[in-house]
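STRUCTURE:
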């Protein structure tokens, strides 16, 4: 019954709707259409519509002289149709499309060349050419700035000439040109070229005086008239020492070969002096030269003699390996597997460097520099681990604050220790504010700190990539010569480059000790050590070790986590400033993204875990990690030239250590 009722209602509704439709239609068709109008008083107006074209008796076509591969885009029209214009009025604003394209291409080539230079320096163990003379550095900086100014002025002249339809001749305006805009641009180019000549002459003179030996290799041979030359007393003394040394050497040779007379030895002097050792010579090379000169068969004894040094170093390495195997269990209990493996690998690299003839003192000097320049960044991991947020992979938050401090130092023209400490102060203020907000975020996401810190760090770096393009910095040292935004790499020559590295530095046994840099790192370690033993530091460690027990004893766990996060972020700001002054330049945009992972790898190599860390873990881990990187690059390049093994080892070590630490922690939540 219910279904039948519903069907009936639907049928009825359809019939009613049809009736309403047709009734309205029929009514519309049959009914006459009438409109009622009420008469009103007024005037009758007649409207006539006409159409036509507006023409002007005087017209002029506007044409722009452009190259075949360029076009003009009209950005804005400043006049309307039918408006009268006079000479000098701006008709429209246009943009030459080829100009922006060319500038982007040149900028890309510059960035690519800069990255290639950095890669070459990194592959060669950070060994790069250094100019120590102040006059050369000043002349080079002035020359670079004048070249930028000259290029900017020339580009503005070419754009203005193209828009005005004027063809340049050899990059200059044709004679007789009277346009004020073009003549002003030409004067700017002339002034920039004149300013460029002075620093170019200074740099050329400094280069000529800096390395004449290298220049002689590319110059043609010249005959020098030495008539009238008189040797100095010092030169005569050195010549006498050489003659005495050669006489003693001849005496030893005659003792072995009595048949050789003084006359014969005198004729053999060029051959003998070519066989004896020279500076930085290896025994194997000396042996090979002597063997080639004598034409003798070395035999088994000769082969053993030639490889004696290599075999002695190898024997020492095997002795260390045997001791490690013999005492494996107590070493693992004391040091842990990562520190033991990396330590043995570091010793292996030292031995290989000695065998391959690499300068071990030079590599150790670089290792000490890397220890100081990276130590504060690794130290920033310690408060985060102790307060309970685990590995703070969001170090880029603090690093950004330090970079802003360094940029403000350059913007205000500060230098030396004043600029360094100003940058540190500004970085600490910014990092304290961002660290507090960062700590509040981590308190809301307990248990997922490592994932949160990773994504927050990546997000901040990506956000700052936009900020570096729009921040209102004015210093020409930081800005691109053309366009907007800051450079990818900014030199610190005029601010605080190597201020700590050169302070009280000295050399011992060929190893350069960067005293100021190591003292600053030690001071930061001491400050953190004292804080961790204060009442607040002990409470923070307790909150990180056992949050529930700490809360039961009255400790505000969330507050302790915020303090640890802020301290970690502030140390990261200080660390990047120290890193930049030691490296010699700052890197913006994507450069800070991976620094948190490198710092985490170093502290884990030192023996720390994701829940406990000490100052000793920071020092040992940084030395081992940076030592392996410093020695690994030249050793790998010597073993397999033109390879990327060193970069592969760096990636394997840094990421493998983090993975190992996570597997040992088991992903457990301490809360």
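SEQUENCE:
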């Amino acid at each position: 019954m219910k279904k039948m009722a519903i069907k009936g209602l639907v049928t009825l509704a359809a019939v009613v709707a049809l009736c309403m439709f047709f009734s309205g239609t029929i009514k519309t068709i049959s009914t006459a259409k009438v409109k009622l109008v009420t008469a009103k008083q007024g005037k009758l107006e007649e409207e006539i519509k006409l159409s036509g074209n507006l023409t002007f008796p005087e017209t002029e076509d506007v044409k722009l002289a452009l190259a075949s591969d360029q076009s003009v885009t009209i950005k804005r029209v400043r006049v309307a149709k039918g408006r009268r214009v006079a000479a000098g009025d701006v008709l429209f604003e246009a943009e030459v499309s080829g100009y922006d394209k060319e500038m982007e291409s040149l900028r890309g080539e510059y960035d690519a060349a800069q990255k290639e230079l950095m890669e070459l320096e990194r592959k060669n163990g950070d060994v790069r050419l250094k100019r120590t003379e102040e006059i050369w550095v000043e002349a080079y900086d002035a020359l670079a700035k004048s070249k930028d100014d000259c290029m900017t002025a020339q580009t503005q002249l070419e754009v203005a000439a193209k828009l005005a339809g004027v063809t340049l001749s050899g990059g200059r305006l044709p004679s007789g040109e009277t346009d004020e805009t073009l003549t002003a641009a030409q004067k700017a180019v002339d002034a920039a070229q004149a300013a460029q000549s002075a620093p170019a002459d200074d740099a050329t003179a400094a280069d000529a005086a800096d390395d004449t030996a290298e220049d002689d290799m590319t110059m043609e041979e010249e005959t020098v008239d030495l008539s009238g030359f008189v040797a100095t007393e010092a030169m005569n003394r050195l010549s006498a020492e050489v003659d005495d040394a050669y006489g003693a050497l001849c005496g030893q040779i005659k003792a072995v070969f009595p048949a050789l007379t003084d006359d014969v030895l005198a004729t053999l002097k060029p051959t003998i002096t070519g066989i004896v050792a020279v500076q930085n010579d290896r025994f194997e090379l000396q042996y090979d030269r002597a063997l080639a000169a004598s034409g003798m068969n070395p035999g088994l004894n000769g082969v053993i003699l030639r490889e004696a040094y290599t075999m002695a170093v190898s024997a020492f390495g095997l002795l260390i390996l045997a001791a490690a195997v013999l005492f494996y269990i107590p070493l693992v209990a004391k040091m842990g597997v990562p520190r033991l493996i990396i330590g043995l690998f570091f010793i292996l690299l030292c031995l290989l460097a000695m065998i391959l003839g690499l300068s071990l003192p030079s590599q150790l000097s670089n290792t000490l520099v890397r220890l100081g320049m990276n130590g504060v960044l690794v130290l920033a991991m310690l408060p985060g681990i102790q307060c309970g947020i685990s590995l703070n992979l969001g170090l880029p938050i603090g690093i950004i604050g330090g970079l802003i401090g360094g940029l403000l130092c350059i913007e205000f023209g500060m230098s030396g220790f004043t600029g360094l400490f100003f940058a540190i102060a500004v970085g600490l203020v910014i990092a304290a504010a961002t660290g507090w907000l960062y700590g509040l975020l981590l308190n809301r996401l307990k248990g997922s700190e490592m994932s949160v810190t990773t994504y927050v760090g990546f997000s901040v770096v990506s956000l700052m990539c936009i900020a570096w393009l729009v921040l209102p910095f004015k210093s020409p040292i930081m800005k691109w010569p053309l366009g907007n935004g800051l450079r990818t790499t900014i030199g610190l020559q005029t601010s605080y480059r190597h201020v700590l590295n050169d302070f009280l530095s000295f050399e011992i046994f060929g190893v350069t000790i960067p005293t100021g840099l190591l003292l600053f790192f030690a001071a930061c370690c001491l400050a953190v050590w004292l804080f961790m033993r204060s009442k607040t530091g002990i409470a923070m460690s307790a909150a990180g070790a056992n949050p529930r027990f700490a809360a039961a004893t009255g400790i505000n766990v969330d507050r302790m986590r915020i303090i640890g996060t802020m301290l970690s972020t502030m140390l990261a700001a200080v660390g990047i400033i120290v890193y930049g002054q030691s490296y010699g330049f700052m890197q913006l945009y994507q450069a800070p993204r991976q620094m948190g992972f490198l710092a985490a790898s170093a502290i884990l190599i030192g023996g720390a875990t994701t829940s406990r860390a000490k100052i000793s873990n920071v020092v040992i881990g940084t030395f081992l990690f940076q030592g392996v990187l410093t020695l690994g690059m030249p050793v790998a390049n010597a073993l397999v030239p033109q390879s990327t093994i060193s970069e592969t080892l760096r990636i394997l070590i840094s990421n493998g250590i983090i993975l190992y630490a996570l597997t040992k922690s088991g992903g457990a939540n301490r809360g």
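REMARK: The longest strand covers residues 72-77.
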